[in-house]
C-alpha cells in the first residue's frame, strides 16, 4: 500500500469513529429525555388553548 492509500484509510476510519461517537451520544438514555423536550414543546404549541381564542 502506498502512502495515499494509508492516508485515505486513516481518514475514513477517523470519520467513522466520529460518526459512531455522535450516534452513541445522541441515542444514549441519559441524553434522550433532554433531546425529546423540544418536540413535546412544539406539540403543545400546536394545540390552541381556550384563553387564546376567547371569541369561540
Overall, the morphology is rod-shaped
Q: How many strands, what sense, and barrel or not for the largest sheet?
A: none
Assembly form of the protein = single chain
DSSP summary, beta strand count: 0
Q: SSE order in H/E notation?
A: HH
Strand content: under 5%
Structural class comes to mainly alpha
Query: Rg to the nearest angstrom?
Result: 23 Å
State the helical fraction. over 70%
Organism: Geomonas terrae
Keywords: Membrane, Transmembrane, Transmembrane helix
Transmembrane segments: 6-24
Region (Disordered): 31-56
Describe this structure in words.
The mean pLDDT is 79. The chain has two helices and no strands. The chain has a domain at 1-34. It has helices at 3-27, 29-46. With 56 residues, the protein is an all-alpha fold.
Give the topology.
Layout: H1 3-27, H2 29-46
Transmembrane segments: 6-24
Protein name: Cbb3-type cytochrome c oxidase subunit 3
Organism: Geomonas terrae
Quick tags:
single chain, 56 residues, mainly alpha, 77% helix, 0% strand, rod-shaped, transmembrane helix, Cbb3-type cytochrome c oxidase subunit 3, membrane, transmembrane
Question: Could you write a compact summary of the structure shown?
Answer:
By secondary structure, the chain is mostly helical. It has helices at 3-27, 29-46. It is built from 2 helices and no strands.
Amino acid at each position: 500500500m502506498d502512502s495515499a492509500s494509508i492516508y485515505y484509510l486513516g481518514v475514513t476510519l477517523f470519520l467513522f469513529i466520529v460518526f459512531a461517537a455522535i450516534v452513541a451520544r445522541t441515542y444514549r438514555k441519559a441524553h434522550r429525555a433532554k433531546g425529546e423536550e423540544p418536540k413535546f414543546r412544539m406539540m403543545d404549541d400546536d394545540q390552541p388553548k381556550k384563553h387564546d381564542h376567547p371569541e369561540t
